[in-house]
Design brief:
Elements (H helix, E strand, L loop, with lengths): L12 E3 L2 E3 L3 E3 L8 H10 L6 E3 L3 E2 L23 E6 L3 H15 L3 E6 L4 H4 L11 H18 L5 E8 L7 H10 L5 E7 L10 H10 L4 E4 L5 H11 L3 E4 L1 H5 L3 H9 L9 H5 L1 H11 L4 H15 L3 E3 L14 H15 L4 H13 L5 E3 L25
Parallel strand pairs: 3-4, 3-11, 4-6, 5-6, 6-7, 7-8, 8-9, 9-10, 10-11
Antiparallel strand pairs: 1-2, 12-13
Helix pairs in contact: 1-11, 2-4, 4-5, 11-12, 13-14
Bound molecules: flavin mononucleotide (FMN).
């Protein structure tokens, strides 16, 4: 087996002087990537998943930031290297929050969010709203960096942005310039505009332009859903790494699969039983984190809605055509498994269903999440972003 130190640069990167292997980040997803979900991904990856980031922490509401009031700040020591992401539009409040978080929690980095498209965030000038006001973004980065340098100079500042507000105002190259000028040490670029929300595909050509021009590590983000896709994005677009969001909900093993590939190990094929075992494990992590049964069930259903799309009938029994999406028999099976879990009325009923599926169907099922290319399935009602932002 290869030693990590001997692996080529394309499988790792440095955040200041910290080596990150593999070069993957679990994208922050508000309402998804809380500590139990992050723990799940970390355990399933065999503790090999690059960087983890908190859900974004709001700062606009606090004239004086109080870390005690923000559940997103909860993380476990084993999550390190771990970053905290903050969002807001007031430079002084962002700096106050960054300083207090850095001093209390000592994360490996503090990240400013310039990407969130939600009307209640971007519409008020925070998140991707900052892309319409780059001088304000610059002031925020400047003040946050000044505070970090004064209080915790060992903690780097990072930035996550979109490529611009809309197709007519793509300004990611200016954002890069500002970020580097203000001492940002890693830039994650989500290759969509704000107007796109999560629709369409991320524009990786722009991400590649940024990576080619940057002196700091640039992490590409948008639609990465498989080992091959991660490899192709890194090789083609010259990014230092990839950040994976929805792909991790379809396939929380993805980070371990990438690490396996980068280490030259054989691909670990996940059986249907193994995939179904994720639900009791996730439930355990949620309950250990203090979630109510209802909340834990809600999150299990959120995961089921995506993960179950990867189920299809075993190839030996019903050969499936290759292609971009699950088709025919495979799709029907995925739907029925999903349905069985999503209609449960309680966590225990859901876990019973999982057990029944394991005892009945699992022997003829396979789990192939990498076959899913489009992460914006038409039936995905949990994400209501996109064209509805027009004019807001
Ligand atoms: C439900 C949801 C919540 C999100 N919350 C955040 C967030 O708190 N901070 C952030 O920077 N991005 C957030 N994002 C954006 C993701 O981090 C990521 O940029 C986006 O999903 C594109 O990557 P993907 O195609 O790998 O999913 C969120 C995305 C989703 C779907």
């Amino acid at each position: 087996m290869l030693k990590i130190d001997n692996l080529p640069k394309k499988v790792r990167f440095s955040l200041r002087d910290k080596e990150i292997f593999p070069n993957t980040i679990l994208s922050p997803m508000d309402g998804v990537t809380d500590a139990p979900f992050r723990r799940l991904c970390r355990v399933l990856s065999g503790d090999r998943m690059g960087l983890l980031v908190s859900e974004f922490v709001p700062t606009d509401g606090d004239a004086v930031f109080n870390p005690d009031g923000h559940k997103q700040l909860k993380f476990f020591p084993e999550e390190r290297p771990f970053g905290v992401q903050i969002f807001g539009r007031f430079p002084d409040r962002m700096a106050d929050a960054a300083g207090k978080i850095a001093e209390r929690y000592h994360p490996e980095f503090i990240e400013v969010n310039a990407g969130c498209p939600a009307p209640k965030v971007a519409g008020k000038g925070s998140g991707s709203g900052l892309l319409r006001d780059l001088p304000r973004l610059q002031e925020i980065l400047h003040e946050v960096k000044k505070t970090l340098d004064a209080k915790t100079p060992e903690i780097p500042l990072t930035l996550k942005c979109r490529i611009g507000w809309d197709d007519q105002s793509i300004n990611v190259m200016e954002t890069l310039k500002i970020a580097e000028g203000e001492g940002v040490e890693m830039l994650t670029v989500h290759g969509r505009t704000r107007l796109q929300g999560y629709n369409g595909l991320a524009n990786w050509d722009w991400i590649g332009e940024v990576a080619a021009a940057a002196k700091i590590p640039v992490i590409g983000n948008g639609d990465v859903n498989s080992v091959e896709c991660a490899r192709e994005r890194i090789n083609t677009y010259g990014v230092s790494g990839v950040s994976i969001g929805r792909g991790a909900m379809h396939n929380p093993w993805i980070f371990g699969a990438i690490a396996d590939a980068w280490e030259g190990r054989e691909k670990h094929v996940i059986s249907a039983e193994e995939a179904l075992d994720v639900f009791p494990l996730y439930y355990k992590f949620k309950i250990e984190d203090g979630a109510t049964e209802m909340n834990a069930m809600g999150r299990m259903k959120q995961l089921a809605a995506r993960l179950c799309k990867g189920f299809c009938l075993g190839k030996g029994r019903f050969p499936l055509e290759g292609g971009n999406d699950l088709g025919g028999e495979g799709n029907e099976l995925a739907m029925s498994v999903r349905q069985a879990l999503l209609t449960s009325q309680s966590a225990s009923e859901m876990l019973d269903q999982v057990q029944k599926l394991k005892e009945s169907l699992a022997y003829e099922m396979v789990f192939e999440p990498e076959r899913l290319v489009n992460l914006n399935g038409a039936k995905e009602t949990e994400l209501k972003f996109g064209d509805q932002f027009k004019g807001r």
